[in-house]
Amino acid sequence: MAVNSPLPVATDLKPVAGIEIGFAEAGIKKPNRKDVLVLTLAPTATVSGVFTMNRFCAAPVQIAKAHLAAVRDGAKPIRALMVNTGNANAGTGAVGLALANESCAALAGLLGCEAGQILPFSTGVILEPLPVGKIVAALPQAVADQRADSWFNAAEAIMTTDTQPKAASRMVDIAGHSVTMSGISKGAGMIKPNMATMLGFLAFDAKVAQPVLDALVKHAADRSFNCITIDGDTSTNDSFMLIATGAGTLVVDSVDTPEYAALAAAVTELSLFLAQSIVRDGEGATKFITITVEGGKDVEECRKVAYSIGHSPLVKTAFFASDPNLGRILCAIGYAGVDDLDVDKLNLYLDDVWVAKDGGRNPDYKEEDGQRVMSQSEITVRVKLARGAAEATVYTCDLSHEYVTINADYRS
Amino acid sequence: MAVNSPLPVATDLKPVAGIEIGFAEAGIKKPNRKDVLVLTLAPTATVSGVFTMNRFCAAPVQIAKAHLAAVRDGAKPIRALMVNTGNANAGTGAVGLALANESCAALAGLLGCEAGQILPFSTGVILEPLPVGKIVAALPQAVADQRADSWFNAAEAIMTTDTQPKAASRMVDIAGHSVTMSGISKGAGMIKPNMATMLGFLAFDAKVAQPVLDALVKHAADRSFNCITIDGDTSTNDSFMLIATGAGTLVVDSVDTPEYAALAAAVTELSLFLAQSIVRDGEGATKFITITVEGGKDVEECRKVAYSIGHSPLVKTAFFASDPNLGRILCAIGYAGVDDLDVDKLNLYLDDVWVAKDGGRNPDYKEEDGQRVMSQSEITVRVKLARGAAEATVYTCDLSHEYVTINADYRS
Fold first, then answer.
1. Location of site Cleavage (chains A, B) (predicted)?
2. What is the average pLDDT across A296-301?
């Protein structure tokens, strides 16, 4: 199930010059399923990423961060990214780090580079040992099958409880240069990214200096993967990686250029599409909810209010039921932690319907108007705080029986 | 459904000298259902309470707080408490305040006192106008039927989505004085009290000075109603009221006495029973979970970690499924917001089973041991942070299909 299921899946995914993709069926959790992905990069590529803030961040996250930091300090550039599903290699302590390093070394051996030039990513069950033997055995196949046009396979290879692959391509013209970008993402539960999503990879063929790419990935993540929530659970493995292969003609050396601004806009748009695709395919989701909070003193308090609404099980079940029980939204605003909030100035809209006026029920509000909007599969909640000029938007989904079923059965 | 359903309901509820109870069927939301409750107090009584921290606190909460404050400033003592179900009178602005005051005035007229001597309480749907006419019409019946032994009826009259009434009595001997205490509570969803529960009323027949009672209610709430969560939604109407009728022989004038200590222990024990009863009857609950976090730097961070576990939909669905998918607990600890947490020192136990050792899977942990504990209806999660000497305990329940069903259907 997904909102407006089936979701449109792009079938015209475009190869990005400077990046090749291979995959394999390692049988990590289940047989006959793509579960290992390898992306190899041109020597000209730069890579940057944002990662989970979870203190129990997974072993591969720790290693990927260390390898990226080493590159910034002058080590050899990243040659490949490696992803496995079926096991998160999180909550696994020193043993988990050793196993992740072992998989990096195995891939480095196949590619003739150093282990430090590999970025590992894992997603799946936490607290179970990584079956590194299966992964190492599958890597030669993934490397042998490398192709530039395997983006759809890549999107499939990183799926877990996702019902559909998530991928899209864009071609944009920036200052006379044609830039091709393709991206994939995965994730359907344990989604409340704080620095990134479960997994997202976005590549394009411009040449971008490392500090510029570092700024760009943060810019895009803050406006996409960091604005979504499904169940409020910030995963141990969230990673969003941006790859500039350097194989095209556009060169961006500074953030203070029109080229950077145009590239940032395009990358952010595609990132937002990939992030919203995760919400639309949220575990058990039947509705896609946009929550916009305006008039806050700062963005932080707007996000607090938006997440408070987006995480409330009572609000989410009301959306599932198409029930305009909208007092639950006021309640969630009230406990969002904005201590000096003056509720008498607060206004609440559901799409075009003015529900609460100056902190109370709008005298002109009619239940049937609320009912009409709640029955839609895409709904916008708009809150006006009347405290300042800041605003923030968060994307989420409803909470259905299917969510409980999926998560009560996940390991079986 | 409730944990270990049906819950034991005390049938030997004891009258508390100095308090009389009446109820009525006002038909606020449904006919033929007790939905109005009146508790009248002896002139010797003192009353104190703790209330929701939700900024959208309901009209009756605002009025009850104001009336209690006036008493502390020398106004006439509280004569009666009045409760209605079926409508929360929250998110109702100035109109809601006027309607709540109207109901206070009506009851005051019947009792021959001032409106300021009445404390109003409401619970039910938010954002809908209070049908004050129905309440006012029902009050004479509630006043006419006042009896000392109607505690069970009182517990029934405040139920909403509760499947069972929640009530208990205790008789304790303090310094040679026999003290009788009876209490009731209600609530099954929108439960993450921050200063109190949905509704809890506890009365006893000792004579207690106002400042002492103010300290006592906070002491008891912090160790009971403020340690539970069902869905993380802090209600607009949470109130926990403590009533010392003054009709018995025990007098407590200071917190620095053995009598206060004994009374505080007894009141806290009964409060905890009433609070835990709410969790056991949590919407759709099939399991009762105790989460104890030890070794924190302060109580606040222990509570953060405990609530992070207790609110995680993924942890709660794993409990529902009896699935020892315990990495989800580590994940929730990791995003609890303890920024300098050293996960390599963390240990996790499920009852007597040592699951995670020094941040990773305990090599001696066996899946079947975790499975055995997860299959129980009462489970203790114990986290050792190894950062200090503070600890905290939170009580919660699982997240089941039934929760979604109840909250998707609540208003229909």
1. 196-197
2. 95
Q: Could you tell me the residue range of the domain that residue A380 belongs to?
A: 288-409
Does the residue A260 lie in any domain?
yes
Sequence-distant (6+) residues with CB within 8 A of A69 are none
CB-based contact (8 Å) between A407 and chain B? yes
Domain shared by A296 and A226, yes or no:
no
> How many independent structural domains does chain B possess?
2
Q: Rounded to an integer, what is the distance from CA B126 to the centroid of its chain? A: 19
Structure tokens at A174: 């920036």
| B326 contacts in chain A (CB < 8 Å) | 127
pLDDT, position B6: 62
Cross-chain Cβ contact A314/B358 below 8 Å: no
* Dihedral class, residue B123 (left if φ above 0, else alpha if ψ from -120 to 50, else beta): beta
Residues 300-329 on A with a CB inside 8 Å of B are 311-314, 317-318, 320-321, 323, 325-328
CATH value at residue B39: 3.60.70.12
Boundary of a domain, candidates B248, B280, B312: B280
Give the span between the Cα atoms of A278 and A313, in whole angstroms.
19
Distances (CA, A) of B255 to A40, B13, B202, B205, B216: 71, 28, 19, 17, 8
A412 has a pLDDT exceeding 50: no
Residues B72 and B118 in one domain: yes
Catalytic residue among A92, A123, A197, A286: A197
Which chain B residue is nearest to residue A94, measuring alpha carbons? B360
Q: Which of residues 210-239 of A touch B (CB under 8 A)?
A: 231-236
Distance between B266 CA and the closest CA of chain A, angstroms: 31
Q: B283-335, pLDDT tens digit by residue?
A: 888 999 999 999 999 999 999 999 999 998 889 999 999 999 888 899 899 88
Our answer to whether residue A163 is catalytic in this structure is no
Q: A69 CB near a chain B CB, below 8 Å?
A: no
The pLDDT of residue B197? 46
Boundary-marking domain end, from A258, A280, A302: A280
In percent, the amount of chain A with pLDDT more than 90 equals 65
> SS3 letters for chain A?
CCCCCCCCCCCCCCCCCCEEEEEECCCCCCCCCCCEEEEEECCCCEEEEEECCCCCCCHHHHHHHHHHHHHHCCCCCCCEEEEEECECCCCCHHHHHHHHHHHHHHHHHHHCCCHHHEEEEEECCCCCCCCHHHHHHHHHHHHHCCECCCHHHHHHHCCCCCCCCEEEEEEEEECCEEEEEEEEEECCCCECCCCCCCEEEEEECCEECHHHHHHHHHHHHHCCHHHECCCCCECCCCEEEEEECCCCCCEECCCCCHHHHHHHHHHHHHHHHHHHHHHHCCCCCCCEEEEEEEEECCHHHHHHHHHHHHHCHHHHHHHHCCCCCCHHHHHHHHCCCCCCCCHHHCEEEECCEEEEECCEECCCCCHHHHHHHHCCCEEEEEEECCCCCEEEEEEEECCCHHHHHHHHHCCC
User: Would A6 be classed as within a structural domain?
Assistant: no
pLDDT at B236 over 80: no
Give the residue from A317, A346, A358, A398 with the most B CB atoms within 10 Å of its CB, the best one to mutate. A317
Judgement on whether residues B106 and B221 belong to the same structural domain of the protein: yes
Residues B273 and B295 placed together within one structural domain of the fold: no
Expressed in angstroms, the distance from the first to the final Cα of chain B is 19
Looking at the structure, tell me whether residues A292 and A199 fall in a common domain: no
A286 is known to lie in a ligand binding site: no
**pLDDT at res. A237:** 76
Measured between CA atoms, the residue of chain B closest to residue A401 is B401
How much is the pLDDT for B194? Answer: 46
CB contact under 8 A, B127 and A400: no
CATH code: domain of residue A404: 3.10.20.340
